[in-house]
Amino acid sequence: MERGSATVRDNALSLSLIPDSIQGHTAEVLSLCFNTLGNQLVTGSFDHTVAIWDVSSGRRIHTLIGHMGEISNVQFNWDCSLVVTGSMDKACKLWESVSGKCVATLVGHKEEVLDVCFDLSGQLIATASADGTARVFSATTHQRLVTLQGHAGEISKICFSPQGSRVLTASSDKTARLWDAQSGVCLQVLEGHTDEIFSCVFNYEGDAIITGSKDNTCRIWH
């Protein structure tokens, strides 16, 4: 695969889809996400841009320009109307997927934004930063609702529980933390890994958590 391109494949059939390569970025593609309909793809690149693509044709629908640093993560909301992007420029941006217009810039972090996500309702946005904090914003008012403070290192991953009431963060301080999404209170510190935690996720029911670490292990928490 060429630098600055993304490849789309159907793994179930072991066949390449047409087109088998989507090209247009001028640097590494670090993050990508399908919308829930599966007909559009959003990509984030080290070239400081985000692109929305038509999957069937490979045509670039929009180029989202505005970030001043590499793009760390991108995500559609559930109804496919919005795209959220995080960047090494310390900001998070919210875009209309139909028009490609930037509707909000969410600021406040002192270091790079390493991860961003919507809750399943699309009403909340969470950001994780190298400054060791996470933030929850309203996707409608664009106001910061809570700041999640407690980690002693950068936060590399963040996600909402399926119900949207909890936020999970993973950090270089070797811990993951579970937070109340409304109050910002830390409900539990998940300790046991012996090195940085790079990944964390809830199961579908929201009653189990799995974390992945640089210590070469994954841990399941109930």
UniProtKB/TrEMBL annotation:
WD repeats lie at residues 22-63, 64-105, 106-147, 148-189, 190-222. GO terms for molecular function: U4 snRNA binding; U6 snRNA binding. One of its GO terms (cellular component) is U4/U6 x U5 tri-snRNP complex. InterPro entries: WD40/YVTN_repeat-like_dom_sf, WD40_PAC1, WD40_repeat_CS, WD40_repeat_dom_sf, WD40_rpt. PROSITE patterns: WD_REPEATS_1, WD_REPEATS_2, WD_REPEATS_REGION. GO terms for biological process: axonemal dynein complex assembly; mRNA splicing, via spliceosome. The keyword Repeat applies. Pfam families: WD40 (PF00400). Keywords: Cell projection, Cilium, Cytoplasm, Cytoskeleton, Flagellum, Repeat, WD repeat. It is found in: Cytoplasm, Cytoskeleton, Flagellum axoneme; Cytoplasm, Cytoskeleton, Flagellum basal body. Signal peptide: none annotated. PANTHER family: PRE-MRNA PROCESSING FACTOR 4, WD40 REPEAT PROTEIN. This is Dynein assembly factor with WD repeat domains 1. It comes from Scophthalmus maximus. The lineage of its organism: Eukaryota, Metazoa, Chordata, Craniata, Vertebrata.
